[in-house]
């Protein structure tokens, strides 16, 4: 009961969808000092600062959203879109400070380093 | 219960001074005492289903299944001893013999007549001996290399009959946040738990456009807000009701060039179900103390914004 947007709109009016994902940043691949394993990505979630807090996000689906030159069909949309998504999921915590490991269906491209990743709220366990 | 005639015929121990009418005393103890010598061949003992106190009688000598996985607690050999079949089978045989009842199959005591294994057959040719002994039943010409592989016990449950579990926060009547799909961000009311493990959810449609819809539990966040739907009776709404109806296949000739997709029409049944369910839910909301607040709550959308962290939120 927190939203201040409680203006009574006429029925059928389009209420804009808000953000339903948690912001995260792709900080790098799982690695030792000299070896890197690209199959596992490391994510830093917004506002998650210790290992205990990462519990909520385990198992949640994550999406790397990017744009490409050619337009393609996106499921659920009728028009061709430049937006593309790489899907993955949060697998476990990484370290003590709220970092998290994620595995994507295909490894993330290195140009995604430092870029936004969306961690969705599903599959929900609460 | 054993027939009165059988009782009087063989109860030598009891004094049968009353010959004309025999009153059958139907106490449980006496019937069991007289059973040892009084049963006619083929009559079954009716053990009492309930004790005098009214409790169900469980035969402690019976076998039972372990955890529904097809394994039994006692093996065949053990059961033989537990049920004292070594005694019973012999007794049955003796009984059958007493009665001279050869048509009754008893456990192993009456042997069947076997046809002789070998029989004589005439053989032609003058130097072959006139006859041969030949097996009356031929041996099989095929021996499989392994025994027939054991099939899984039929008692194994199919997936469709496995128990489905529901999160404790998703009871019927709870308000829930839809987190994915077309109606993501909307708040809806759980109407029912379906047998397939899905939740049946409704807006109500008037408030936020969420129809009567099935939703998987993992795409839903349960909140602590509850509406009292205990009065509702919604038996006809089940998975079958909501199952997608695929259009029947047309002739192959027509289909290739007909690229029109038929729009699925909302059936009247569904509209009716929506109306009736929503009426119940809306009444329940009205009856609630915070009805105005609840209605606004259901109309509003869930969002995250700066500083709002779902792992810190209390839903």
From TrEMBL, chain A:
<dbReference type="GO" id="GO:0005840">
    <property type="term" value="C:ribosome"/>
</dbReference>
<dbReference type="InterPro" id="IPR001780">
    <property type="entry name" value="Ribosomal_eL33"/>
</dbReference>
<comment type="similarity">
    <text>Belongs to the eukaryotic ribosomal protein eL33 family.</text>
</comment>
<dbReference type="InterPro" id="IPR038661">
    <property type="entry name" value="Ribosomal_eL33_sf"/>
</dbReference>
<dbReference type="GO" id="GO:1990904">
    <property type="term" value="C:ribonucleoprotein complex"/>
</dbReference>
<dbReference type="Pfam" id="PF01247">
    <property type="entry name" value="Ribosomal_L35Ae"/>
</dbReference>
<protein>
    <recommendedName>
        <fullName>Large ribosomal subunit protein eL33</fullName>
    </recommendedName>
</protein>
<dbReference type="InterPro" id="IPR009000">
    <property type="entry name" value="Transl_B-barrel_sf"/>
</dbReference>
<keyword id="KW-0687">Ribonucleoprotein</keyword>
<dbReference type="GO" id="GO:0006412">
    <property type="term" value="P:translation"/>
</dbReference>
<dbReference type="InterPro" id="IPR018266">
    <property type="entry name" value="Ribosomal_eL33_CS"/>
</dbReference>
<keyword id="KW-0689">Ribosomal protein</keyword>
<dbReference type="GO" id="GO:0003735">
    <property type="term" value="F:structural constituent of ribosome"/>
</dbReference>
Automatic annotation (TrEMBL), chain B:
<dbReference type="Pfam" id="PF01159">
    <property type="entry name" value="Ribosomal_L6e"/>
</dbReference>
<protein>
    <recommendedName>
        <fullName>Large ribosomal subunit protein eL6</fullName>
    </recommendedName>
</protein>
<dbReference type="GO" id="GO:0003735">
    <property type="term" value="F:structural constituent of ribosome"/>
</dbReference>
<dbReference type="GO" id="GO:0000027">
    <property type="term" value="P:ribosomal large subunit assembly"/>
</dbReference>
<feature type="region of interest" description="Disordered">
    <location>
        <begin position="96"/>
        <end position="129"/>
    </location>
</feature>
<dbReference type="InterPro" id="IPR005568">
    <property type="entry name" value="Ribosomal_uL6_N"/>
</dbReference>
<feature type="region of interest" description="Disordered">
    <location>
        <begin position="253"/>
        <end position="272"/>
    </location>
</feature>
<feature type="compositionally biased region" description="Low complexity">
    <location>
        <begin position="31"/>
        <end position="42"/>
    </location>
</feature>
<feature type="region of interest" description="Disordered">
    <location>
        <begin position="31"/>
        <end position="53"/>
    </location>
</feature>
<dbReference type="GO" id="GO:0002181">
    <property type="term" value="P:cytoplasmic translation"/>
</dbReference>
<dbReference type="GO" id="GO:0003723">
    <property type="term" value="F:RNA binding"/>
</dbReference>
<dbReference type="InterPro" id="IPR000915">
    <property type="entry name" value="60S_ribosomal_eL6"/>
</dbReference>
<dbReference type="InterPro" id="IPR041997">
    <property type="entry name" value="Ribosomal_eL6_KOW"/>
</dbReference>
<feature type="domain" description="Large ribosomal subunit protein uL6 N-terminal">
    <location>
        <begin position="69"/>
        <end position="112"/>
    </location>
</feature>
<comment type="subunit">
    <text>Component of the large ribosomal subunit. May bind IPO9 with low affinity.</text>
</comment>
<comment type="function">
    <text>Component of the large ribosomal subunit. The ribosome is a large ribonucleoprotein complex responsible for the synthesis of proteins in the cell.</text>
</comment>
<dbReference type="InterPro" id="IPR008991">
    <property type="entry name" value="Translation_prot_SH3-like_sf"/>
</dbReference>
<dbReference type="Pfam" id="PF03868">
    <property type="entry name" value="Ribosomal_L6e_N"/>
</dbReference>
<keyword id="KW-0687">Ribonucleoprotein</keyword>
<keyword id="KW-0689">Ribosomal protein</keyword>
<comment type="similarity">
    <text>Belongs to the eukaryotic ribosomal protein eL6 family.</text>
</comment>
<dbReference type="GO" id="GO:0022625">
    <property type="term" value="C:cytosolic large ribosomal subunit"/>
</dbReference>
């Amino acid at each position: 009961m927190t939203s201040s947007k409680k203006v009574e709109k006429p029925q059928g009016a389009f209420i804009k969808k808000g953000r339903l994902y948690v912001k995260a940043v792709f900080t790098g691949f799982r690695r030792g000092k000299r070896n890197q394993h690209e199959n596992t990505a490391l994510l830093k979630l917004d506002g998650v600062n210790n290992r205990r807090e990462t519990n909520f996000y385990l198992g949640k689906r994550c999406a790397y959203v990017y744009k490409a030159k050619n337009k393609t069909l996106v499921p659920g949309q009728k028009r061709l879109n430049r937006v593309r998504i790489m899907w993955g999921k949060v697998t476990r915590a990484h370290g003590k400070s709220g970092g998290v490991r994620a595995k994507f269906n295909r490894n993330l491209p290195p140009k995604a380093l430092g870029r936004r990743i969306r961690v969705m709220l599903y599959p929900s366990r609460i | 219960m054993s027939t009165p005639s059988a009782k009087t015929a063989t109860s030598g121990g009891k004094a049968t001074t009353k010959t004309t009418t025999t009153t059958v005393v139907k106490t449980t103890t006496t019937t069991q005492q007289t059973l040892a010598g009084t049963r006619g061949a083929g009559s079954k003992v009716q053990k009492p289903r309930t004790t005098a106190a009214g409790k169900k009688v469980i035969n402690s000598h019976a076998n039972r299944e372990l955890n529904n996985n097809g394994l039994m607690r006692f093996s065949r050999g053990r059961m033989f001893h537990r049920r004292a079949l070594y005694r019973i089978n012999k007794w049955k045989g003796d009984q059958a013999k007493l009665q001279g009842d050869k048509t009754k199959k008893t456990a192993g005591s009456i042997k069947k007549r076997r046809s002789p294994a070998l029989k004589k057959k005439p053989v032609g040719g003058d130097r072959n001996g006139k006859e041969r002994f030949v097996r009356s039943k031929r041996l099989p010409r095929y021996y499989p290399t392994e025994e027939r592989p054991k099939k899984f016990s039929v008692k194994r449950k199919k997936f469709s009959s496995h128990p489905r579990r529901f999160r404790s926060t998703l009871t019927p009547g709870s308000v829930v946040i839809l987190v994915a799909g077309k109606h993501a961000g909307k708040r809806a009311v759980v109407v029912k738990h379906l047998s397939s493990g899905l939740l049946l959810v409704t807006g109500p449609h008037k408030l936020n456009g969420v129809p009567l819809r099935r939703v998987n539990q993992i795409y839903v966040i349960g909140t602590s807000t509850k509406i009292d739907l205990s009065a509702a009776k919604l038996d006809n709404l089940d998975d079958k009701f909501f199952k997608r109806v695929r259009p029947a296949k047309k002739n192959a000739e027509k289909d290739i060039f007909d690229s029109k997709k038929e729009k699925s029409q909302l059936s009247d049944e569904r509209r009716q179900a929506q109306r009736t369910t929503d009426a119940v839910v809306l009444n329940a909301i009205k009856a609630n103390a915070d009805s105005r607040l609840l209605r606004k709550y259901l109309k509003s959308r869930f969002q995250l914004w700066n500083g709002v962290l779902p792992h810190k939120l209390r839903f």
